[in-house]
Design brief:
Layout (H helix, E strand, L loop, with lengths): L2 H10 L6 H15 E4 L5 E6 L2 H15 L4 E6 L7 E7 L2 H10 L3 E3 L5 E3 L11 H15 E3 L8 E5 L2 H12 L6 E5 L2 E6 L2 H11 L2 H51 L7 H12 L5 H7 L6 H25 L1
Helix pairs in contact: 2-3, 2-5, 7-8, 8-9, 8-11, 9-11, 10-11
Length: about 325
Amino acid sequence: MSFSSKVKNELARHVGKARHCSIAEIAAIIKMCGHVEVTPAVSIVVHTENPSVAKKFYLLLKETFKINPEIAIRKNVHLGKSRNYILHLNNPSEASRVLQATKMLDISDNGQIKTIDGINSLIVQSTCCKRAYIRGAFLGGGSVSDPEKNYHLEFVNTSEEHCKALQKIIHSFELDAKIVRRKKYFVLYMKDGTQIVDMFNIMGAHVALMDLENVRIVKEMRNNVNRIVNCETANLNKTVSAAVKQLEDINYIESIIGLDKLPSNLEEVARIRQIYTDASLKELGAMLDPVVGKSGVNHRLRKISNIAEKLRKEREGVI
């Protein structure tokens, strides 16, 4: 089972207490994965591939409106063994009652009926109803990627107006959701792990929240370890490269003029470096008499390097 399905199954088990929240959740499910017909008669059809979502929508209608929609199960020929659950609400009076309660119908003075693409502010007045609407929207058309791979949560909308209205609700919780056009759909998405955790909390997916947090902690620890190892490796490579260059300069000076021609303080450092090829600057300084600090050793080695370069240039000039 995918992580997205696990989240939906958890949300489908969420039990709302207030009727107005149930109405908001029903409205969101219809908007995201439903279809409303107003001619010749009012009807509602909801399609979903998740049996938990189908059961949730059925129970919401039954408990909120005392309505039992018809259920059909069809095998999806394009996706192998997966099934498509279709819930029909063909009774015009029952469908009209649901649509009027969810504020999805607009009836003109002359009796003409049409559906509303956006979200009526009356059904998302309170914070709890906004949470319920987002939960319903995720059940109807949301998905979230496996956090082991990447962080991505999205709501796929067929209506741009509804997508922008849903974005406004999410923004009211101080979360940043962006919209992108994907063929004929409008996708509202989030890619920040912290904000996806907050979104799970808003929807009521607390088990999924903990699972995601655990993954984020492990990934953060792994990344920190990798950064430390990479940093230490880089420092080690830098130290080794510097030591190799120092030995090359010291050996060159010894072969051309001899180390005994160097000032005594430089000769001392040079001979110790020849013996202790892997020692750090701090360790080299501790072997000197008197002891010299890291910066002091580095200063002497730079002087030795300058002398070696000068000798090389002189040799090149002679040749």
